[in-house]
Specification:
By secondary structure, this protein is of the alpha+beta class. The protein is about 30% helix and about 15% strand. The radius of gyration is 33 Å and the shape is elongated.
């Protein structure tokens, strides 16, 4: 620590509360709310600091020509708690050497591990000298300035102070358009952990009550009318929506409205609890087209017609609303195995529908069936394990674009042109195929 500079006389107040608010706030300059007179004086008036807390307010100021030019939020500390800088090892070493580490002088914002200015005003060097003077004259073990700016740390080092570097993890918004877009930038393990943590927080009774009590935002408030209108329609349609669980049922027995009538609960409450359950993976789909009657009977009728093709739709244009890739596996898992509320199809009929029938309709006579001379394009499927999982949004298109995805399990192997492209539901990295273009 630098030697005392006797020409510097420090003025010490009993607390920030005793100082004029405009004088203190005029020195901060940064707009940092934790340095404001209002925040620091509230810590004192609420007795968060003061007698019996181990944090005795001791703001140190420097005056020149009768004007306060610098100040520091300093405290006389009798412990190291609430600092988020762990110097207990130093305290133990000091005690073993026969000294007394406490009290010490701490320049900090109590209980706030946020980097920001600590040496306020324009007379930084004189303020550091004043802190040294207070430490020496009061026979304190040491003075500490924590969570300071780089410029302040360099100024202290130039006077002989010791620098101690710590490590913090800060979150930055990299222009994420939504929480899901932020999650998409993380690994699968971290995404699942965050969703699980968020779901647990949503289940807190006080937070749950506060969210459910909130009024819907009116038009405006920074929300474009298309988004607001869509949200309004989805909210109004909540009673006829459904709850999706991991064992996805595309023809659920009960709507949310029916559950609400049976249990006497509000539909919004039912949706909230579903999204907050388990690991937070719940989905509440709005099944609109092809579901107007509340069942898939008319889809079954269409599938029986000889001119109906089960092929891709317009998911390319509506990637946030439609997951085309799950359509064909659903023909096997739902229509040939899992449907409960109406007639099903045979497995053979569904396999023929999504293979040979489509190939012939598009003039691809070299594929679509297992026969000598045909292309070796084969899916080996564990039918009992085949499952189309819950839909989820991924932000992996160019510029962070989002698309609705549904993973499928139960594919033992996918062979394209004789090359294994997937094995046990895992991508093998092989791309032997090519884009098929229409011919004039």
């Amino acid at each position: 620590m630098a030697d005392r500079e006797s020409e510097i006389v420090a003025r010490i107040a009993r607390g920030v509360t005793d100082l004029p608010a405009d004088q203190w706030d005029g020195l901060t300059g940064s707009g940092d709310p934790f340095l404001s007179h209002a925040f620091l004086s509230l810590l004192e008036s609420s007795r968060s600091v003061g007698d019996g807390t181990g944090w005795t307010p001791l703001p140190v100021m420097v005056e020149r020509d009768g004007r306060v030019t610098a100040a520091a939020p300093a405290y006389l500390k009798t412990h190291s708690q609430g600092e988020y800088v762990f110097d207990h090892g130093w305290a133990d070493a000091w005690d073993r050497a026969g000294g007394s580490y406490y009290p010490k002088l701490q320049v900090a914002v109590p209980f706030t591990p946020c980097v920001g200015p600590r040496l306020l005003g324009s007379d930084r060097n004189a303020l550091l000298a004043a802190l040294e003077t207070v430490t020496v004259q009061n026979q304190l073990s040491s003075a500490h300035v924590t969570f300071s700016t780089d410029e302040e740390s360099k100024a202290a080092e130039e006077r002989g102070w010791l620098r101690r570097d710590g490590l913090q993890y800060h979150w930055f918004n990299r222009d994420y358009a939504s929480f899901d877009e932020f999650l998409a930038a993380l690994s699968s393990r971290k995404r699942k952990a965050i969703r699980k943590e968020r779901a647990a927080a949503m289940r807190d009774p006080a937070r749950r009550a506060a969210i459910l009590a909130q009024e819907d935002l009116p038009p405006g408030n920074g929300i474009d009318m298309v988004t607001w209108g869509t949200a309004r329609v989805m909210t109004d349609r909540t009673p006829i929506a459904h709850l999706f669980h991991e064992d996805t049922d595309y023809e659920p027995d009960e709507t949310i409205g029916a559950i609400a009538a049976r249990t006497g609960r509000d539909p919004q409450e039912i949706v909230y609890d579903h999204l907050a359950a388990g690991d937070g993976d719940g989905v509440v789909p709005q099944m609109m087209l092809n579901y107007s009657n509340g069942n898939l009977d008319h889809v079954h009728e269409m599938l029986t017609h000889p001119n109906t093709l089960s092929s891709l739709g317009d998911g390319g244009a509506h990637v946030r609303l439609i997951a085309d890739a799950s359509l064909l596996p659903m023909h096997l898992s739902f229509w040939a195995r899992d449907r409960k509320r109406g007639p099903k199809f045979s497995l053979e009929a569904m396999v023929e529908r999504i293979t040979r029938r489509n190939a012939r309709a598009f003039g691809m006579h070299d594929r679509g069936e297992l026969a000598p001379g045909k292309r070796a394009d084969v899916n080996v499927i564990d039918f009992d394990r085949l499952n189309v999982r819950l839909p989820m949004m991924r932000h992996d298109l160019p510029a962070g674009g989002a698309r609705l995805c549904q993973e499928t399990t139960g594919f033992v192997a996918t062979v394209q042109s004789g090359v294994v492209t997937r094995e046990r539901d895992a991508d093998m990295g092989e791309r032997p195929g090519r884009l098929i273009r229409a011919r004039a």
